[in-house]
Design goal:
Blueprint lengths: L8 E6 L3 H8 L7 E7 L3 E3 L4 H5 L9 E3 H4 L5 E5 L2 E5 L4 E4 L4 E3 L2 E4 L3 E3 L5 H6 L6 H20 L3 H7 L1 E5 L3 H16 L1 H4 L9 E5 L11 H13 L3 E3 L4 E5 L2 E4 L4 E3 L2 E4 L3 E3 L16 E3 L11 E3 L4 E3 L13 H19 L13 E6 L3 E6 L4 E3 L1 H15 L3 H17 L18
Parallel strand pairs: 1-2, 1-9, 2-5, 9-20, 11-12, 11-17, 12-13, 19-21
Antiparallel strand pairs: 3-4, 6-7, 7-8, 10-18, 14-15, 15-16, 22-23, 23-24
Helix pairs in contact: 1-10, 5-6
């Protein structure tokens, strides 16, 4: 009866990405709460570098790390499961395996998923890039296409197979296009001599008038110039309308025959049954107050991509769905819950915008720091991009692996990670 563990409130965190992990880390070994993390994967991964896994410049273990290793000896439990629904009356989650999990405080940190805007053809046939599985699947298919193209005798079919269309001119789209252009320039002819004289066309399509639209005008110009220098065909003020039979249909009435179509044009928050409709806002994000408490609930919070706050006059449409707001909200909510447990008043969340950055190819990076007050390009832009991404990786093992892989790729203009792994190709698959 006097066991202090029983007096601890139980916090259940759904999702172990940027928001969830930074929230949990601030509660390690605290005397007030016990914590359970629920995630469909058994590892945390660094989303901004998924495209480098997909393009064979990093291995998955460089940007991922197992939760159970992270939470070892930290009074944090872990469940590898999905969440089917929430019963807010009984404070119970129903998990994918049919079991229930009760909570005193529930924190949604489940992030977002790809938004296909209702287009079923694109959803079924395009490649997206929201997780390690997506990245490996895309890597396999890109490599498999090159293998097939090396044996194809019809020049038109070969050209189609080696044409890539990327929808979305944000950081993911721009960075994927840049890495594929590097592959085309430095690797393709060496690995596939029969393709040396075959044109490889990379198209980047976006509905905005600029690439990396939220960033500064200097960055818009630098990104476009870098794309042209790498041989990427950029089409702005144009949307992808449909994709079927190997054709990408554009809003200007034209079409591109492509062997690979990558969709990086938007996200929508993950949603859960049991949360009232009036608590859901734009992009299916949960409406939260300045303390990340979900509208209509006293014991449910949301942080990161899944949360939207309207109280910050600088962000009338909510904070951007990128890493920094998620990290900062996770830390802020943990601090506030600890303050409440100590009898203190919580502090409202205020986002500090450290800036935006992107890398294009092997050595071109752009950065707009401190709400676009400082623009960096060239070597300074590259070094700032490298520094921010390395320090953001979850542990030293990831940092060392990633730095090593980058050093190899930078000095040799190559990387020996172009491997096709097929889980379905088991010896005893039946």
């Amino acid at each position: 009866m006097n066991n202090p563990e029983r007096r601890k409130q139980h916090i259940v965190v759904i999702g172990g990405g940027f928001a969830g992990l930074n929230f949990v880390k601030r509660l390690y070994r605290n005397p007030y709460y016990r914590v359970t993390v629920v995630d469909k994967n058994n590892y945390n991964y660094f989303t901004p570098l998924l495209y480098q896994v997909a393009t064979s410049f990093l291995e998955p273990s460089s940007i991922s790390y197992p939760f159970r290793r992270l939470f070892r000896k930290q009074n944090v439990d872990f469940r590898m499961e999905t969440v089917n629904d929430v019963d807010t009356r009984t404070k119970t989650l129903r998990l994918g395996d049919g079991t229930g999990l009760s909570y005193d405080i529930l924190v949604f940190a489940a992030g977002s998923r790809t938004n296909f805007f209702g287009n079923e053809n694109i959803r079924q046939h395009a490649f997206s890039l929201k997780g390690i599985d997506d990245a490996l699947y895309l890597r396999n298919e890109l490599l498999r296409n090159m293998e097939k193209a090396s044996l194809e005798t019809d020049p038109d079919e070969r050209r189609r197979m080696l044409t890539v269309v990327i929808a979305g001119g944000g950081p993911t789209g721009v960075e994927v296009a840049g890495m594929l252009a590097e592959t085309k320039k430095y690797i393709l002819a060496n690995d596939y001599p029969s393709l040396a004289d075959t044109p490889v066309n990379i198209h980047l399509v976006d509905g905005a008038p600029y690439l990396l639209a939220p960033m500064s005008h200097k960055t818009h110009t630098a990104a476009l110039n870098a794309m042209h220098k790498l041989g990427v065909h950029v089409k702005l003020n144009t949307q992808v309308k449909d994709y079927h039979n190997g054709q990408v249909e554009l809003s200007d009435g034209t079409a591109i025959e492509a062997g690979t179509f990558i969709w990086a044009a938007g996200v929508v928050a993950n949603s859960f049954q049991g949360i009232a409709a009036e608590s859901i806002g734009k992009g299916k994000r949960m409406i939260t107050d300045a303390f990340n408490k979900v509208k209509g609930y006293d014991d449910i919070y949301a942080i990161g991509d899944i949360s939207i706050q309207f109280g910050d006059e600088r962000y009338p449409d909510g904070h951007p769905q990128v890493a920094q707001p998620a990290i900062q909200q996770g830390k802020a909510l943990a601090r506030n819950l600890l303050r409440v447990a100590r009898g203190k008043v919580p502090k409202p969340f205020r986002y500090f915008d450290r800036g935006d950055m992107a890398i294009i190819g092997r050595q071109i990076a752009v950065a707009d720091l401190f709400r676009h007050k400082l623009h960096l390009g060239g070597l300074l832009g590259l070094l700032s991009w490298l520094f921010i991404h390395v320090i953001s990786l979850v542990n030293y093992n990831n940092k060392i692996k990633t730095l090593y892989n980058w050093a190899v790729a930078y000095t040799t203009r190559d990387q020996a990670l172009r491997l096709i792994f097929r889980p379905g190709n088991r010896e005893n698959r039946g």
